[in-house]
Design brief:
heterodimer; A: mainly beta; five-stranded antiparallel sheet; 0% helix; B: 113 residues; mainly beta; four-stranded antiparallel sheet
């Protein structure tokens, strides 16, 4: 049962434009959300996170938006650069219970930024 | 440079071999994790250690045996693995508790002959 879903397996964007990666979740106990970037032959690299008490968090070119009522979050990359080409994983974590600290991952979206 | 170091980067072993994967972090994190990742799939959690004690075991077969000798080190002992265990094994660390990002190593690419 996939509790975190990334419905777009791939996204192609021109350099300089905005990339928008989307993620949906089903578990209302999730209260912390993260985005990771993964290059081939490397481990996932933590990009940005957001707590459920916020609806936006920004770090340089990366902004994450959270819509709790829709159980939806998105990652915006502006402007997109060719070096951003990678697989992006959305992840979520519950705030309590026996699964505290556990990350639930989506299946990832392959972003390709072309010149 | 990753702050979580995993060795070896690649490992090929037969089904009767015994080997160990190692993970080290010096970020002062007190939670450490083992994940398994197959091609084009997300990482799957295997084990969680919190303050050097095993807190989550995701029903992993006993041929995988984790060990956390101290707060900086995490090992995964392998014995009698199957071909389907071939995968990328990722280690991660974080501060324990909620709202803490996990930081991953680059993984060990394991191939079982």
């Amino acid at each position: 049962d996939q509790q975190v879903k990334q419905n777009s397996p791939s996204l192609s964007v021109q350099e300089g434009r905005i990339s928008i990666l989307n993620c949906d979740y089903t578990n209302s106990m999730f209260d912390y959300f993260l985005w990771y970037k993964k290059y081939p032959a490397e481990g996932p690299t933590f990009l940005i996170s957001i707590s459920s008490i916020k609806d936006k968090n920004e770090d340089g070119r990366f902004t994450v938006f959270l819509n709790k009522s829709a159980k939806h979050l998105s990652l915006h990359i502006v402007p997109s650069q060719p070096g951003d080409s990678a697989v992006y994983f959305c992840a979520a974590s519950p705030d309590r219970g026996s699964t505290l600290g556990r990350l639930y991952f989506g299946r990832g979206t392959q972003l390709t930024v072309w010149p | 440079d990753t702050e979580v170091t995993q060795t070896p980067k690649h490992l090929v072993m037969g089904m009767t071999n015994k080997k160990s994967l190692k993970c080290e972090q010096h970020m002062g994190h007190r939670a450490m994790y083992w994940y398994k990742q197959k091609a084009k799939k997300p990482p799957e959690l295997m084990f969680v250690y919190s303050y050097e004690k095993l807190s989550i075991n995701e029903s992993v077969p006993s041929r995988f045996s984790p060990e956390c000798p101290n707060s900086s080190l995490l090992n995964l002992h392998l014995h009698a693995l199957q071909p389907e265990d071939s995968a990328l094994y990722l280690c991660a660390s974080s501060q324990p508790g909620s709202n803490q990002p996990q930081h991953f190593g680059d993984g060990t690419r394991l191939s079982i002959l």
